[in-house]
Amino acid sequence: MGSALKPPKAVFFDWDGTLADSFVFLRGAHSHVRNAIGLPDLTQEQFNGYFGMPRELLYREIYGDEGERAKELFEAYVMENHTQLEPMPGAGELLTAIAARNIPMGAVSNKKGDFIREEIKHFGWQEHFVSIIGAGDAENDKPAADPLLLAIERGRVKFGLSDIWYVGDTETDLKCAQETGCPCVFLQHKDKDASLIETYKPALVVRNCHELRGFFVAN
């Protein structure tokens, strides 16, 4: 797992699929919206292809001309139900291990910031994060560098970019880290993601939060 790799001086995390186990919830939310506008449910395979897409692109891909109406329905559904999420296995222990080393942490997501902040509070993790950036908070969302740079600025993290990790589980996260100049830690959930590893060459690849915690315990 990259034993020669030095621990970071700060860590920023993607949210959905990285710290929050949101796949089932988000697929259900989009299926609810699609039903409301007369479209069929998304299959798991279909949603696999959409998961992690930038927010505006996702709405165009899933809803086409109904994107604006779908966005309103989706946000209403999420507003009412979003704290039904569960943490990814081992996520809480990972954050505790990093906090024990006094390493500042933040969250950068393409989900609306208000939702992320409520979900983080629901998990009781709000004390772990120096900044939380969501969709629309920066000039451009991921995969642009803007939201990660804004999170670093708002978190008053003064370290060089090469000492700041970004942890995520999608190509959007890999691109964001690359654009920013930060080392990326990639959570590889699926074997087919091996092609992304070859393309982006993340600094560290782990299968889950338990493995990443193991790095901090060992180093």
Main traits of this protein?
alpha/beta; globular; 2 domains; 8 strands; Rossmann fold; 219 residues
Question: What would you say this structure looks like, in words?
Answer:
The chain has two domains: 10-21 and 86-218, Rossmann fold (3-Layer(aba) Sandwich), CATH 3.40.50.1000; 23-84. It contains ten helices and eight strands. The strands form two sheets. It has a six-stranded parallel sheet with strand order 5-4-1-6-7-8, with helices on both faces. Strands 2-3 form a two-stranded antiparallel ribbon. Helix 1 packs across helix 4 and helix 3 crosses helix 4. The chain has helices spanning 23-36, 44-50, 55-63, 67-81, 91-99, 113-123, 146-154, 171-180, 194-200, 209-218; strands at 10-13, 20-21, 86-87, 105-112, 129-135, 164-168, 184-187, 204-206. By secondary structure, the chain is an alpha/beta fold.
What is the number of independent domains? 2
- Helix/strand class: alpha/beta
Biggest pleated-sheet summary: 6 strands, parallel
Secondary-structure arrangement, i.e. CATH architecture of the largest domain: 3-Layer(aba) Sandwich
Distance between the termini: 11 Å
- Count of runs of 4 or more consecutive helical residues: 10
The strand line-up of the biggest sheet is 5-4-1-6-7-8
Number of distinct beta strands: 8
Q: Low-confidence parts, pLDDT < 50 over ≥5 residues? A: none
Give the overall silhouette. Answer: globular
Helix content: 40-55%
The CATH topology of the largest domain comes to Rossmann fold
- Look at the structure and give the CATH class of the largest domain: Alpha Beta
The CATH homologous superfamily of the largest domain is called HAD superfamily/HAD-like
Average pLDDT: 92
Cα-atom Rg, whole angstroms? 17 Å
Pattern of helices and strands: EEHHHHEHEHEHEHEHEH
Beta-strand share of residues: 15-25%
